Amino acid sequence: MKKIAISLSLLLLFVVPIGCTDINDNAVPSSVEIKDFVWKGMNLYYLWQADVPDLADTRFANQTELNTFLETFVTPIDLFNHLRVSITIDRFSVIFSDYSLLEGILSGNTLNNGMDYGLKFKDATQTSVYGWVRYIIPNSDAATKSIQRGNIFYAINGTPLTKDNYRTLLANTTYTINLADYDNGNITPNGQSITLTKTNISENPIFINTVIHQGTHNIGYLMYNGFYPSYDDQLNTVFGNFVAQNVTDLVLDLRYDSGGSINSATKLASMITGQFPGQLFAKQQWNAKAQAYFLSNNPGSLENKFIASLNGLHLNKVYILTTKATASASELVVNCLKPYIQVVQIGDLTTGKNVGSITLYDSPTFSKTNVNPNHKYAMQPIVLKIVNKDNFGDYAAGISPTISLPENLNSLGILGNTDEPLLNAAINRIISSGKMTPQVPSVFERDFTDAKSLNPLQSEMYLDNK
Known about the structure:
Blueprint: H1 8-13, H2 33-45, H3 63-70, H4 76-83, E1 94-96, H5 99-106, E2 109-112, E3 115-121, E4 129-136, E5 152-156, E6 159-160, H6 166-171, E7 174-183, E8 186-197, E9 199-202, E10 206-214, E11 217-224, H7 232-244, E12 249-253, H8 262-272, E13 280-285, H9 288-297, E14 303-305, E15 317-322, H10 329-337, E16 342-347, E17 355-357, E18 360-361, E19 378-380, E20 382-387, E21 403-404, H11 421-431, E22 449-450
Parallel strand pairs: 11-12, 12-15, 15-16, 16-21
Antiparallel strand pairs: 1-19, 2-9, 3-4, 3-22, 4-5, 5-6, 5-7, 7-8, 10-11, 13-14, 13-20, 17-20, 18-19
């Protein structure tokens, strides 16, 4: 599945001079050809190119000087990380030695056992770790096992989880989770265990869709776990069913949606509304030279507009459920809908990912056309910031909810049930029942990471071919 920032015809034109004309591809020795691709791609597209001295257009007088610089790095990954502005500013740019894996992740295809989970620290020392099951992916290995939302695991293969080993232990293709009981933060091993095996899974992001009838309200509920373009048509069918059932209100559950395609996010927003066809939904801001090129040659390519030819609910208010795991394209929907309709956000502060990426391949146009057959490296660097109609996009610290209601392991509830706390809070708000929103605990521990965040691309927001 090809992920590229702009159409191929435009990419063929987008060749910005790099430094002086003496830098060219004709004098690149095979020993540094991958690193040459990394440097030139980052120099051309990287959002923070102007802030990295070694990416300056004038940094090298000729290709020979560039080659000498590239030879000082042991691997392309070392070079890529050196060229990133800083880990605190750029948390999301990644490089893969095999673009097949990258493409699979961006389309929702991963090696996965089907157990989606969050990880928390046991105490203030932030040393010991435990996991909790958020949901189970259908048609996975976990779906065939006795495991469910809310299960707690404290060890893998008998080894207690810590901040130093959880990545390694959970990366294994097959592992056994050791279960525990949970009581107000106390984790007590219970002697039970479950063995899980990862297989290649294509996760359908449309996890739950139903209509809840409450008096005069027909409440559509959609739990959507990833913006994968291959499911856009199914999503449009869901909204067609919502329209057919006269849905009057919508609860959009993005609590575990870590993002994906900007184009898919635009489509979802268009389905929620429908009354704003052709109007500006979101704007992209690239690095200075890329921005200048687009503004001069195709300013419309910087804009994402509401789409007319979709099933729309024509709502003027939407209820969106969020957690710390809500990221990138999910946050885009929240932020970019706000200038048009009322967004009632229920749950927790979001991740804070207001930037997007593209896939760069080693080819003359950085697309997959005429890709270098000598290797399979590809990059997914951050190349743009995205803002709404009012030019607001400064939510790197996360988007705060209208109603604060973090998930509580003592009372998680069953996803999709009307008494599940976050959904119940939305329903009560819709029908104005007067019921009190559950009180937020004075002390609660947010997940410090989760299954999707452990994969550096699962929380990506990217542009794809439209």
